[in-house]
Design brief:
Layout (H helix, E strand, L loop, with lengths): L3 H5 L4 H10 L2 H9 L6 H8 L7 H16 L2 E9 L26 H14 L3 E5 L9 H11 L5 E5 L5 H10 L3 E3 L7 H7 L8 H5 L1 H8 L3 E4 L8 H18 L4 E5 L18 H14 L4 E4 L5 H7 L6 E3 L27 H10 L3 E3 L10
Parallel strand pairs: 1-2, 1-8, 1-9, 2-3, 3-4, 4-5, 5-6, 6-7, 7-8
Helix pairs in contact: 3-4, 4-12, 4-13, 5-13, 6-7, 7-8, 8-11
Length: 372
């Protein structure tokens, strides 16, 4: 059965990168004037250096398209870290096997304690997060966690190790709605450098994950790259190609894109490539112009100033009050964190900021907006 892995074999990284950097102002103007849906050649132009001078018209069109599809709403969600145990070595992650931190996996009682605190904040959408440790936080553990939490939340998503198709189908029947899996980078050789040990070192298995999700009938899939590992323009092109392939192949599912920039963490890596705030705005707008149905998410990795200013330009979902340590809501322990967050405002302040801009934060599903 064909998958995105077969399609990506038709693309050569350096040729794509050269093509992006050759795009001209005329290519950008042509893309912006194009009616209807844009294609991947247009996306290359919109993420190119030549598009930097056209950020204002890109932002205006992105703003208009987002309001037409999603209204003036922002879906709110919160991560729930279940475990920081991991069998992988990743050069950029605070949960990496070689990082000497205390390890913790929440018990059923501790999961319910976290649930209780999160519910008091008003959240109905929760994102379950673990390291990649199959023996400790495998399918059986995830199944148990979803059974515990399903009666308390309207929507359950997870960001955990890639699983088999049958395992995704099993968790879907338990009440799982959404799965986020980031390729980190689509540059095969650079991927090997940053994932030298563990199951995650298998580039192709990770790349096939969204096809397994689609065949398992998962309601929504999240994609993205870790911005800072490689040239962000080229990596984003590959992610955009992946998105278009999935939208066409598994048209029953919804899709979301996230924009994680490398953040400081224990044993952390300095970014190879720095993505400025203006460039991140350019990237957000480029995705919106490529697809008016994809949901765009911005987490607390970003600063309050940046999140407040980019809210109207295409973003449809946000987290707030996030803790990245297992048990962090009921019993905070910064020594267990995956990475430092930047926006540390409480949910009430984030909600007030959203409303000051004329938008409505949504804690449950609303008409016209998907999940997160």
């Amino acid at each position: 059965m064909q998958s995105f892995k077969d399609l990506i074999a038709n693309y050569e990284w350096q040729a794509i990168q050269d093509d992006i950097y050759r795009k001209s102002a005329a290519d950008v103007v042509r893309a912006l004037a194009k009616p209807g849906r844009l294609d991947l050649e247009d996306f290359k132009a919109l993420v190119s250096p030549a598009a930097a001078a056209y950020l204002e018209p890109m932002a205006q069109r992105s703003h208009q398209q987002t309001q037409q599809r999603f209204g003036k709403t922002i879906q709110m969600y919160i991560p729930l870290y279940l475990s920081n145990e991991c069998q992988n070595i990743c050069t950029y992650c605070g949960f990496s096997l070689d990082v000497p931190i205390a390890r913790k996996t929440l018990s059923e009682e501790e999961i319910l304690a976290e649930m209780s605190v999160i519910k008091q904040m008003g959240y109905e959408h929760v994102l379950l997060v673990t390291g990649e440790a199959n023996k400790t936080v495998g399918v059986e553990y995830l199944q148990c966690a979803i059974r515990l939490l399903r009666p308390h939340f309207a929507h359950i998503a997870m960001e955990v190790q890639p699983l088999e198709q049958a395992e995704y189908a099993l968790l879907r029947r338990e009440g799982l709605h959404t799965v986020l899996v980031y390729q980190e980078t689509y540059h095969r050789e650079e991927y090997k450098t940053h994932h030298p040990k563990g199951k995650k070192s298998n580039f192709d298995y990770r790349l096939d994950t969204h096809d397994r999700l689609g065949r398992a009938g998962i309601q929504k899939m999240g994609l993205g790259v870790l911005l800072g590992l490689e040239d962000w323009r080229t990596d984003s092109f590959f992610c955009a190609a992946h998105l278009q392939y999935l939208e066409k192949t598994y048209w029953q599912s919804k899709y979301s894109i996230s924009f994680p920039r490398l953040r400081p963490c224990a044993g952390g890596l300095n970014p190879k490539v720095q993505l400025s705030d203006r460039e991140l705005v350019q990237l957000i707008c480029a995705y919106r112009l490529l697809s008016d149905t994809v949901e765009l998410s911005l987490s607390t990795r970003e600063s309050p100033h940046f999140r407040d200013h980019v809210l109207k330009l295409g973003i449809t979902s946000m987290s707030a009050d996030s803790k990245t340590d297992p048990g962090g809501y009921a019993n905070p322990n910064m020594a267990l964190e995956q990475f430092e967050i930047d926006d540390k405002r409480p949910t009430t302040e984030v909600v007030a900021s959203i409303r000051r801009q004329g938008y409505e934060p949504v804690f449950k599903n609303a008409v016209g907006i998907g999940d997160f």
